[in-house]
């Protein structure tokens, strides 16, 4: 380890490359304490640049660990928790990229993590969200705690780094005016879950697509992509479906009144392709996934 504090700050960022390898500092349990120590020393010395480097290291580490945790939750079938965790990572990644240009070769895997967050989100069945409309009564700056009003503020810029901390606005007093149900909400956390008879939240969603991929992906950094298309199958394969149930072609008609007597049915199909490593081969490679 070098004794030059600026070099040490740079090293703590560099050590977080290749998080998929056991040799990456991402897996070093002592690293968060070393970063915190380095940052405290930089702030004490009044070195903004060095403090910002430690902030970068903190954020990169939080995103890498957070994304690996989301993947663990996906594997374990904790789908709603994984959704919230992916959302947290996405917000941290946006904030980091505002202040830090990712390495060209993506050695921190931030580009990969960003792509994979969006791909996982697309597999989720959530389409309806609650979006609260909030009246912000008192907003303060996180750096100086100065009050922010429509007429002026303290001079700190939201999203910038001061003394190794990012400036954000803290809502100290607010009132919820209304809650609307929207398709593209600002906060994706607020998924509509039903209330069960005992008052606890019931998760009524079908996570078949998420589970299909999570079961086959071998690690958080195993890249894959999905394409939505159609596939034509012999109607014989659907002969155990009830005639009065919905037709698998998703026409909205009953199966008996639609494709039941045709020789083939064209059904929606989600094709998942893995890049690099083979998917877990103990599971069937192909599976018919019906939406709706
Ligand atoms: Zn301020
Ligand atoms: Zn049909």
Please, what is the average pLDDT? 86
Radius of gyration of CA atoms, rounded to a whole number: 24 Å
Question: In total, how many domains does the architecture comprise?
Answer: 3
Measured by DSSP, the beta-strand proportion falls in 15-25%
Distance between the termini: 57 Å
Cross-sheet strand order for the largest sheet: 2-1-5
Bound molecules: zinc ion
Uncertain ranges? 288-292
Question: What is the ordering of alpha helices and beta strands?
Answer: HHHHHEEEEEEEHEE
* Structural class by SSE content: alpha+beta
The helix content, as a percent range, equals: 25-40%
Tally of DSSP β-strands: 9
State the main characteristics:
alpha+beta, 3 domains, 3-stranded antiparallel sheet, disordered C terminus, binds zinc ion
Would you kindly provide a written description of the structure presented here, covering whatever features stand out?
By secondary structure, the protein is an alpha+beta fold. It folds into three domains: about 5-125, no CATH class; about 130-200, no CATH class; about 225-275, no CATH class. It contains six helices and nine strands. The chain has helices at about 5-15, 30-45, 50-75, 80-100, 110-125, 210-215; strands spanning about 130-140, 145-150, 160, 165, 170-180, 195, 200, 225-235, 265-275. The strands form four sheets. It has a three-stranded antiparallel β-sheet with strand order 2-1-5, with no helix packed on it. The protein has a two-stranded antiparallel sheet with strand order 3-4. A hairpin with a 5-residue loop joins strand 6 (about 195) and strand 7. The radius of gyration is 24 Å and the shape is globular. Bound molecules: zinc ion (2 copies).
